């Protein structure tokens, strides 16, 4: 399904998002302490460089439209909403699907990219590569020379990249060359419905807590609007009003100028695997030949923890009520695991080596 082809479920779902924005509804309903999970910023005039000749192509069909690729394993620990992402898929509508989780109404992954109704037109490619060295690598995805579904002349060309940063867990969308005129984008609801003009959404799908939920009622959309201000909007299942201004509130109204960088940085104190520790004190033995670890914390207040394998699957979860956590992974396969632990809003991660 697409935003422009028909008034299908995804159209109504996205319209629900922007209608909530129009009404200025408190998306969490619990006061002002709730914020978007990510801090948004924009940088203009950055250099846009295509990925190198060594980049690998996702296994989408040659004539892909709305398909998704097979999963590709992340080359380094990367956390989204404090969840370890083991693998990603590329989506034909421009998003990245994390650990297989997708918004079923919008048909987009959490990292929605510069989302439009793209098609390959038998020439567009989606590629990926990793640059840099540990602990500061970047996983890069490029949508290259892609077209739009209604391009009957086969002349549209749009390009952009998604960068995922090791350590900081930051996300960037980088706009490249586009030959689609601004006049083809809807500036209001009437232009979308009556003139079938194009729409573009930029942002992230988020959940409360350290989860990737597919339940629409628990999904929030941090969208970047046409004035480059971000807004967090609840994604409820609701009947859409006919308000003429509803749709335009959540769209970007044009394809960004080449060199535009949209950056999303996790809020709060989330440390990398190599960062300074404020929650964890010591883990021993590590490596462990028995699969048993003793984790000492710097606080006696309650902490929540999750343990992930390198595919991003959660293999253990629980709560620590004091400053000691005894872990027994002996029933699991030997290998590398990641302990993710949160105390008073601060989240830290550490490798557990079972050898």
Q: What count of structural domains?
A: 2
Gyration radius, to the nearest Å? 21 Å
The shape is elongated
Helical segment tally? 2
β-strand amount: 35-45%
Strands, total number = 24
Major sheet: 8 strands, antiparallel
- Could you estimate the helical fraction of the residues in percent? under 10%
Low-confidence stretches: 1-33, 237-246, 269-276
Structural features, described:
The protein is elongated, with a radius of gyration of 21 Å. The protein folds into two domains: 9-266, no CATH class; 280-354, Immunoglobulin-like, CATH 2.60.40.3080. With 355 residues, the protein is mostly beta strands. Strands 1, 2, 9, 10, 11, 12, 13 and 17 form an eight-stranded antiparallel sheet that branches. A four-stranded antiparallel sheet has the order 8-14-15-16, with helices on one face. It has a four-stranded antiparallel sheet with strand order 21-20-23-24, with no helix packed on it. It has helices at 9-23, 189-193, and strands at 38-43, 56-57, 72-73, 79-80, 83-84, 87-90, 96-98, 111-115, 118-119, 125-131, 138-148, 158-165, 171-178, 201-206, 220-224, 230-234, 261-266, 280-284, 292-297, 303-309, 314-320, 324-328, 335-343, 346-354. Residues 1-33, 237-246 and 269-276 have low confidence and may be disordered. Helices cover 6% and strands 37% of the residues.
């Amino acid at each position: 399904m697409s935003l422009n082809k028909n008034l299908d479920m995804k159209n109504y779902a996205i319209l629900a998002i922007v209608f909530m924005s129009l009404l200025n509804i408190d998306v969490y309903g619990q006061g002002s302490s709730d914020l978007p999970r990510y801090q948004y910023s924009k940088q203009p005039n950055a250099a846009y460089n295509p990925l190198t000749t060594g980049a690998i192509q996702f296994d989408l069909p040659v004539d892909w439209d709305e398909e998704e690729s097979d999963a590709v394993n992340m080359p380094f620990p990367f956390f989204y909403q404090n969840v370890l992402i083991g693998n990603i898929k590329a989506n034909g509508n421009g998003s990245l699907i994390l650990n297989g989780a997708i918004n079923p109404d919008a048909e987009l992954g959490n990292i929605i990219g510069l989302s439009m109704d793209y098609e390959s037109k038998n020439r567009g490619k989606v590629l990926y590569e990793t640059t840099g060295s540990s602990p500061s690598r970047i996983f890069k995805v490029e949508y290259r020379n892609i077209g739009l579904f209604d391009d009957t002349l086969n002349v549209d060309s749009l390009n952009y990249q998604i960068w995922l940063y090791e350590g900081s867990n930051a996300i960037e969308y980088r706009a490249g060359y586009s030959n689609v005129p601004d006049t083809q984008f809807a500036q209001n609801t009437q232009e979308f419905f009556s003139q079938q003009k194009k729409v573009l959404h930029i942002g992230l799908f988020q959940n409360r807590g350290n989860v990737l939920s597919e339940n629409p009622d628990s999904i929030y959309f941090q969208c970047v609007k046409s004035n480059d201000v971000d807004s967090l909007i609840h994604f409820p299942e609701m009947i859409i009003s006919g308000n003429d201004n509803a749709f335009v509130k959540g769209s970007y109204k044009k394809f960004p100028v080449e060199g535009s960088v949209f950056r999303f940085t996790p809020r709060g104190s989330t440390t990398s695997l190599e960062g300074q520790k404020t929650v964890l004190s010591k883990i021993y033995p590590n490596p462990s030949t028995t699969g048993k670890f003793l984790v000492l914390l710097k606080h006696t207040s309650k902490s929540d923890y999750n343990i992930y394998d390198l595919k991003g699957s959660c293999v253990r979860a629980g709560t620590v009520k004091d400053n000691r956590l005894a872990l027994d992974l002996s029933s699991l396969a030997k290998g590398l695991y990641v302990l993710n632990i949160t105390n008073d809003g601060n989240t830290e991660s550490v490798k557990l080596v079972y050898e």
